[in-house]
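[User]
Protein folding is very new to me. Any chance you could explain this protein sequence and its structure tokens? I have pasted everything here:
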Amino acid sequence: QVAVTVHAVSIPVSFAKAWPTLKETIEATKPNIVIATGLKHAARGVMLERCATNLMDAIKPDADNVIPRREPIDPNGPAAYWTRLPLRSILNDFTDDSIPATLSSDAGTFVCNSLFYNLLNWTATQERVLGGFVSFPPVVPAHSSQHGLPLDQQIAAGRDVVREAVRYYLKPSSS
């Protein structure tokens, strides 16, 4: 067993403020693993995001009433970054725990993708820090016919993500 400290921070749904808010927490806590999460209203289960693209292309305003259209997140950055989180191992845990989930190759073009891209851009400059993004569906009551997941399944999913990320961090060949 390994002791893990989790630091949670609420991120504004703002292209200008999301990454600086997360980066401030990262600088204060010096984590080995950063797992960002977001709400995906249309999701029917947990979505493990594989890559972040260098594109902001909003169809609605963010919290600051900004609607970037077809703009790069980083004009000098690569087109995309791929997460190094052990997504298949996490997905296997979800299957064992009966948590509906999928691998996603599209984090969208709104604030979640922008945050994910900036996170992976930052981890690319760090010697040994893992970063990733998980999109969660809405919380619904147990046995609900609405799309989403009950809170207990979402908590179990978060636990599985952290456990597999820590396992992989400690033993990279394990996943």
In short: The chain has one domain: 32-174.
